[in-house]
Specification:
This protein has 344 residues and is mostly helical. 72% of the residues lie in helices and 0% in strands.
Length: 344
């Protein structure tokens, strides 16, 4: 009887986790649709308020909140090691939306599906093998301070690369989206750690909750991460930013769980080998996806444009003398007609 109850609870947890993945994928697609025409030249603190006027973006926010509710409910019925790998399906659902709704003139190809499936399988496999467990209820303040400083440093570095010094201002939209998406995923992982700290004190009553720091840090960091995610979604194609959301969020949360709360991950020889293999699969999938026309076409890569657009781009390049290399003019020999008639 106990085994049957456990099986039912696990089934509920899996179904709720799938529902959470569908909701978060829907949120990303809707927010990208709402933000794609609001690309900012620099970091704009008012971007979220402008996007809030667009119904499709608000639909994405509502879907994200619903996904969060499904995720919390799933964790009531199943362990973190069961729920988190299922949430990695979010990337595949995003590509499903792109395949159905299309991504402009570019369609999702088989290699795009394989890359997305590899990344989803890799992160799911890593979380399943690592299976973080145990640990303390509350993390020491010194460790929180160090984690916050490191996370802030990563985010500020991503903003500097994207909008600041060097070639950041001239970087392609897909590159900006990828960098900001990675920073957003890391920031969401930090938010998850703060939520864990907050949830540990829920049984102590409202007075204890609101007299501690987690609710206020959660509001500030959550709002900042939402703003960062909006910039990532506005910067470039969803196929560039979504892998950072999907992969780095749970990875960062798992690492912070070990560092802050002293959680244990499996470190046997077979487990470590499998975890390294899972990370290699993620890297391979990300590398393959970075060469996808879903990303390159939005940056105007000629090989990814439809046939007529390719021909038009080629003609424009030929008409533009600035695009012709200096070596394209033939080296004139004395017997050339243009040189024969030219006297000293």
């Amino acid at each position: 009887m106990a085994a049957e109850v456990k099986a039912v609870l696990m089934e509920k947890a899996v179904l709720l986790a799938v529902a959470a993945s569908v909701c978060t994928a829907t949120a990303s697609v809707c927010q990208r649709l709402g933000a794609r025409s609001s690309q900012a030249a620099g970091f704009d603190v008012w971007l979220v308020f402008r996007l809030a006027r667009r119904p499709v973006w608000l639909l994405g926010v509502a879907s994200m909140i619903l996904g969060f509710v499904f995720q919390l409910t799933a964790l009531r019925f199943g362990a973190l090691a069961l729920v988190q790998p299922v949430l990695a399906l979010e990337l595949l659902f995003v590509f499903g939306y792109l395949a159905v709704a299309g991504s402009g003139p570019v369609r999702v190809k088989r290699r795009d599906w394989l890359a997305a499936a590899a990344m989803s399988a890799g992160i799911g496999m890593f979380l399943w093998l690592a299976a973080p467990s145990g640990g303390r209820r509350h993390a020491p303040g010194s460790l929180w301070l160090l984690s916050g400083l490191v996370t802030s440093g990563v985010v500020l570095a991503a903003l500097a690369v994207t909008f600041g010094f060097g070639n950041g201002a001239g970087a392609s939209g897909s590159r900006r989206a990828a960098v900001l998406g990675a920073a957003t995923g890391i920031s969401w992982g930090f938010v998850a750690a703060v939520i864990k700290e907050l949830s540990s004190g829920l049984g102590d009553g409202p007075g204890a909750i609101f007299s501690s720091w987690p609710p206020y840090v959660l509001l500030v960091v959550g709002a900042a991460t939402m703003l960062l995610a909006s910039h990532a979604l506005a910067a470039g194609p969803l196929a560039a930013s979504q892998p950072g959301f999907t992969v780095l969020d749970p990875l960062t949360a798992s690492l912070l769980g070990v560092f802050l709360f002293g959680e244990h991950i499996r470190t046997g020889a077979a487990d470590l080998a499998g975890e390294v293999l899972a990370l290699a699969i993620i890297v391979a999938g990300a590398s393959a996806l970075s060469h996808s026309c879903l990303i390159l076409a939005e940056d105007g890569h000629r090989s990814c444009l439809p046939g007529q657009d390719q021909e038009q781009a080629r003609r424009e390049q030929l008409r533009d003398p600035g695009d012709q290399p200096a070596a394209s003019t033939r080296h004139r020999q004395p017997q050339d007609p243009a040189v024969k008639g030219a006297g000293p």
